[in-house]
Write a structure and sequence with these properties.
alpha+beta, four-stranded antiparallel β-sheet, 4 helices
């Protein structure tokens, strides 16, 4: 779970919708992580429902605890977008 959470962060797969909602783009699915009771994180994935923890929650929790986490999310997402646009331009990604 920790390795997957690190991958989600490093690949720019976490989108901050608001201070209370994050959109996490997994390899095969997308999930919403919500902040409830000011600090508890809840995920929409089956893993969270079964275990009470998942890589999505770990990734969002990590970013929330890092100073300037929102800026880190933005920087990583911008780099991901640039990389995908280059790949799209070169025809490496289909539309």
């Amino acid at each position: 779970m920790i390795e997957k959470a690190a991958w989600l962060i490093s690949e720019g797969r976490i989108v901050k919708i608001s201070n209370l909602l994050y959109y996490v783009i997994g390899r095969h699915s997308r999930h919403l992580v919500r902040v409830v009771d000011d600090s508890k994180l809840v995920c929409s994935c089956a893993g969270y429902k079964n275990r009470g923890v998942c890589s999505h929650v770990i990734a969002v929790s990590t970013l929330r605890k890092i100073k300037n986490g929102a800026e880190i999310i933005n920087e990583i997402m911008q780099e991901r977008i640039r990389r995908e646009l280059r790949q799209l331009y070169r025809g490496e990604i289909s539309r």
